[in-house]
Design brief:
Elements: H1 11-18, H2 31-34, E1 37-43, E2 46-51, H3 61-76, E3 80-84, H4 97-105, E4 108-109, E5 127-131, E6 139-144, E7 150-154
Parallel strand pairs: 2-3, 4-7
Antiparallel strand pairs: 1-2, 5-6, 6-7
Length: 157
């Protein structure tokens, strides 16, 4: 049986393009590594991407939707619809292993409980939370007593 040639992008093509879009609040992570891309559908009418907000009321959602639409429309020359869904909740478990490594490399502790938080610079557990409120809704501020470095940590959800 001969398979008909595919016209236009497939889901894997779209996901690869999405992997190049950085999260506006955590630019060391792509939106794919952050785990917010929930569903991708490609058909004759265009491309639809469903994203999961990390927090209700996340101020970066408009920027993320715009970045997705712009990149995919430019790359594939097709109509793009980006929708936010709460079909399943986003949790920090959705962050990919590459995403966790990128966070550590950027000096941001990956998600965990405050008791499990380790310094991303020296790996010490001798840390103290300075504030449960960081520069964004998804981060907290810590201080390492071992290497004396302040650092941010992702909140677990």
């Amino acid at each position: 049986m001969i398979e008909a040639p595919r016209i236009g992008p497939g889901e894997a093509d779209v996901r690869a393009a999405l992997a190049a879009i950085p999260d506006p609040e955590l630019p060391v992570l792509s939106i794919v590594d952050l785990g917010i891309v929930h569903d991708v559908r490609v058909d004759a009418d265009g491309i639809e991407v469903a994203i999961l907000p990390t927090f209700v009321g996340c101020p970066a959602l408009d920027a993320i939707r715009a970045a997705i639409a712009e990149r995919l429309e430019r790359r594939f020359d097709r109509p793009v619809r980006v929708r936010t869904t709460f079909e399943v909740p986003w949790t920090s478990d959705r962050i990919s292993p590459a995403g966790i490594a990128a966070l550590r490399d950027a000096g941001i502790a990956p998600p965990g409980t405050a008791e499990d938080t380790r310094c991303p610079f020296c790996a010490s557990a001798n840390v103290v939370m300075d504030s449960a409120f960081g520069p964004t809704q998804c981060r907290m501020l810590f201080y390492c007593r071992a290497c004396r470095q302040p650092f941010e940590a992702m909140k677990s959800v």
